[in-house]
From TrEMBL:
It comes from Trapa incisa. One of the essential components for the initiation of protein synthesis. Protects formylmethionyl-tRNA from spontaneous hydrolysis and promotes its binding to the 30S ribosomal subunits. Also involved in the hydrolysis of GTP during the formation of the 70S ribosomal complex. The keyword Mitochondrion applies. It is found in: Mitochondrion. This is Translation initiation factor IF-2, mitochondrial. Residues 483-494 have a biased composition (Acidic residues).
């Protein structure tokens, strides 16, 4: 009966242990008592079925409470989270199948080094632009630029300005110089307080599609002939002149070219103008440059007056033009909008008085006024290089009065105004608002679109010019790094297309034309040819241009300039350098497009040069071992093109390609030939193939190099299509 007492004691201990665990109280002595009871039972009678059940119950209780030994000092809430713990013991990693390493008997292969491809860096965020004005303090400039006051004071010391505190006012020139050194763009803000504000003439820009009669309309307004002096009869420059109307009022007109290559000129014209006259031919309607001119006017927030020209022609249809303009989003007066429409004819000189009334009415509605006194603000419309007078800039004064003898900064160039001439070439002492003038005396050639800033001294002009040059060079290098052709070259290499580089030097008569020609040539870039404009300049081709072209193997392109001297031409001929000079933009783009197509490497393609149909099959048997095995000959007739022995042959059966291989024998009338033309019969043997059937088609394949195509649209836009 002793084993029963031990069993009862063991079960009691187990229940006690379980109850104390549920209450959260347990100690090592309780566990030891339970273990002693279990092992005592095991030592007495281990083969009794009841005892085995007791043992299993005791062991299961111990296993259920295994986590108590590991987390003896935890509370019941933490113990409850350990219910899914793994059992005691360490898990051994499973051993995989043993694989014997092969003994390396060959030397390692020398793989060529492949440099890591550069990831195309994301384009930098646009540079911050801040407004500056005369008399702003260092503290105000620090707030706008985001730089610290101490850093601005260090810059001021470097430029030679003594600033005792952050509340000292600065001149507008020094403020712009400091802003550029910080790395932000500065926009000058001129106050009109205490100034004489007087009415001024409107600045009107004439825009439209090429050959729609823009210059002819201006000729009719000012009774001159400009179109006859333009090469090819189309406008290729940005002209500015003042027209005295019969009513006594004066209007400043800007004539813009309509060719697709001169988009930047049209954008500059829209930026400086007050009113845009949109010229549309009544017999042609709305064209691509018409839509572009409307987009430029809308982006500049400039009102539009529509002049429907060539209304005297038999095919003229002004109503159709009005519907086209309305469909483009232009709200005409006849349809409840505010855009005036005038029907004119430049050749018959009809409707010009109504156009004048519409322009003056629009100017009166806008109430155009400007500051007369104080330093001038002007805008460069065009710039050119004259052999006798040096750099010349055509400008329109926006505010103030521009005087001869003043020191000015134009973009990154500076100078002292030596002379001011009106558009008729007459000398004048001053230029008032809305007056187009030509100034001379600059040290360098400015860019079209630069602002003219009047400064107080030559030292200030030099300082501001050098600061702008540094900023311009920094921006140029940033743009070059962003527009580098590495990405396009990588894509071309991945696609298996070889890309070559074509270097070009551009020379033209004026700065705006240089920009237009450069942009047009860059638009001819293709996956096979990269057009790299290495140098641009204004003026004729010189010996230095030939030396540069020889160094970088470039082609010289001249537009609307004089022919180079004989010495320069001979030097270019000896160096095998091409000099291409044109006076019409159409001819220049066509010539350069053909040259680019000639330079392109092309893409290798497989074409079917000819087809032959199998009419009969002949078999040569019993040949000697020296001549080889039996041969099957396909008797064919050439149905299309020609069959060449050196080409690859493709066997087509029921529209499916069966085999491709080279031709081992081609005979015509028992004579070995290299080529069989259309309509002739021949015997043909294809190497490693003898399963011919009557009706099979044998195609002759040849590799050809496909060159890209130069495409020019009616609007003048050009492109290279690969």
């Amino acid at each position: 009966m002793a084993w029963r007492a031990l069993a009862v004691k063991g079960l009691q201990s187990t229940h006690i242990l379980s109850g104390r665990y549920s209450a959260g109280r347990i100690s090592a002595s309780h566990v030891i008592d339970l273990a002693k009871s279990v092992f005592s039972i095991n030592s007495c009678v281990s083969d009794h079925p009841f005892i085995s059940a007791v043992q299993e119950a005791a062991y299961s209780k111990v296993l259920q409470q295994r986590n108590i030994f590991r987390y003896i000092h935890t509370n019941p809430h933490l113990l409850a989270r350990r219910g899914d713990d793994e059992p005691f013991g360490l898990k051994t990693a499973k051993k995989g199948k043993y694989v014997k390493r092969e003994a390396r008997t060959q030397p390692p292969v020398e793989a060529p080094y492949v440099p890591q491809k550069k990831k195309a860096s994301a384009k930098t965020s646009p540079v911050k632009t801040v407004d500056i004005f005369e008399g702003m303090t260092v503290l105000e400039l620090a707030k706008r630029t985001g730089a610290s006051i101490s850093s601005l004071q260090d810059i001021l010391v470097n430029v030679g300005e003594k600033v005792e505190s952050e509340f000292v006012p600065l001149s507008i020139d020094i403020a712009e110089l400091v802003a550029m050194e910080v790395g932000v763009n500065a926009k000058r803000f001129h106050s009109k307080e205490g100034s004489d504000i007087l009415p001024r003439p409107p600045v009107v820009t004439v825009m439209g599609h090429v050959d729609h009669g823009k210059t002819s309309l201006l000729d009719a307004l000012r009774q001159t002939s400009v179109a006859a002096r333009e090469a090819g009869g189309i406008t290729q420059h940005l002209g500015a002149f003042v027209v005295e109307m019969p009513s006594g009022a004066s209007i400043t007109f800007l004539d813009t070219p309509g060719h697709a290559a001169f988009s930047a000129m049209r954008a500059r014209g829209a930026a400086v103008t007050d009113i845009v006259v949109l010229v549309v031919a009544a017999d042609d309607g709305v064209m691509p440059q018409t839509r572009e001119a409307m987009a430029h006017a809308k982006s500049a927030n400039v009102p539009i007056v529509v002049a429907i020209n060539k209304c005297d022609k038999p095919a003229a249809d002004p109503e159709r033009v009005k519907l086209q303009l309305a469909s483009e989003g232009l709200l005409l007066e006849e349809m409840g909008g505010d855009v005036q429409v005038v029907e004119v004819s430049a050749m018959a000189k009809t409707g010009l008085d109504r156009l004048e009334e519409a322009l003056l009415l629009q100017a009166e509605i806008m109430d155009l006024k400007s500051r007369i006194d104080g330093s001038a603000q002007a805008y460069v419309v065009e710039a050119r290089l004259d052999r006798g007078r040096g750099p010349l800039a055509t400008a329109i004064v926006k505010a103030g009065t521009l005087l001869s003898g003043q020191h000015v900064v134009v973009g990154s160039e500076w100078g002292r105004i030596r002379a001011v001439r009106d558009m008729l070439g007459k000398m004048t002492d001053q230029a008032t608002p809305a007056m187009p003038v030509e100034i001379e005396g600059l040290r360098g050639l400015p860019m079209a679109g630069d602002d003219i800033v009047v400064v107080e001294s030559e030292e200030r002009a030099r300082m501001l010019s050098s600061g702008r040059k540094r900023k311009f060079e920094k921006d140029r290098l940033t743009k070059v790094s962003e527009d580098s052709p590495e990405t396009s070259e990588t894509l071309s290499e991945e696609e298996g297309i070889k890309r070559v580089e074509m270097s070009i030097i551009v020379k033209a008569d004026v700065q705006g034309t240089v920009q237009a020609v450069t942009d047009a040539l860059k638009s001819l870039n293709s996956p096979q040819v990269f057009v790299n404009v290495v140098h641009v300049g204004v003026g004729p081709v010189s010996q230095s241009d030939v030396d540069l072209a020889q160094a970088c193997r470039a082609c010289i392109v001249g537009f609307n300039i004089k022919s180079p001297p004989c010495a320069v031409t001979q030097a270019a001929t000896r160096a095998s350098i091409k000099i291409k000079i044109h006076r019409v933009i159409y001819h220049l783009l066509e010539d350069m497009g053909n040259l680019i197509v000639e330079r392109a490497p092309g893409v290798s393609e497989t074409q079917v040069a000819g087809e032959a149909q199998v009419l009969n099959i002949f078999e040569l048997k019993g040949r000697s071992k020296s001549k080889g095995d039996d041969v099957k000959i396909a008797g064919c007739r050439v149905t299309d093109g020609r069959v060449v022995k050196s080409s690859t042959m493709r066997l087509v059966r029921s529209g499916e390609v069966v085999f491709e291989g080279c031709c081992s024998s081609l005979k015509r009338e028992k004579q070995d030939v290299d080529m069989v033309a259309k309509g002739n019969e021949c015997g043909l043997v294809i190497r490693d193939w003898d399963d011919f059937r009557v009706g099979d088609v044998i195609q002759c394949l040849e590799q050809v190099i496909r060159k890209p195509k130069f495409i020019s649209s009616e609007s003048g836009a050009v492109r290279i299509e690969c």
